Amino acid sequence: MACLLWCGLAIKMIVLRPILFSLFADFELELPWVTRLLLHPAVSILFVMIAVGLVLRRLTVASIESRRRIGWRALVLALVVILVMAIGFGLPLFSLMRALA
What we know:
By secondary structure, this protein is mainly alpha-helical. Helices cover 87% and strands 0% of the residues.
């Protein structure tokens, strides 16, 4: 479950990063530091590496209890990342919609 969530986050960042970057650049928005951090190319690579690590975890960790513990921590981390992404991308998009209205 955690692996699928992280794979989805990685794909989302790889696809959305160039789109949002060009959107924010076209309207010359002043981006908060969270948004600038999320738009950095290394963040997409980080998400991919976490997803690969979770796949390899399944192959290397023998104890089912250790797998569950790692899985729950990965799920909690993914939920925190989703919250940060919602704030980081939501605030500039909200201010852009307000400015265009």
